[in-house]
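[09:14] KT: can someone run the structure on this one? pasting the chain below
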Amino acid sequence: MLVIVTENVPPRLRGRLAVWLIEIRAGVYVGDLSAKVRDMIWSQIEDGLEEGNAVMAWSTNTESGFDFMTLGKNRRLPVELDGLKLVSFFPIEDDETDAL
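[09:31] RB: done, structure tokens below
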């Protein structure tokens, strides 16, 4: 199983992803593809992301049963700790707290 979630990406990238995956919600794509195709899709995301961000998660033989990669500006940062991938958060920037 492969899941890709995109935010603020150009329509042409959304269209590219819809060629290989099912878009079950706006910006949420799922499918069951090989590692080679998954890498090719990630390359397409890297090339077409522009100002947006994306995360890709897939089933694999790890302790947690999945792995993931992120791309683009986001408060969440993948961190590996003792072979387990976790998510760390950047602190909220002053501009963001002023808007709240």
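[09:33] KT: thanks! The helical segments are 11-20, 35-48, 94-99.
[09:34] RB: yep, looked fine to me
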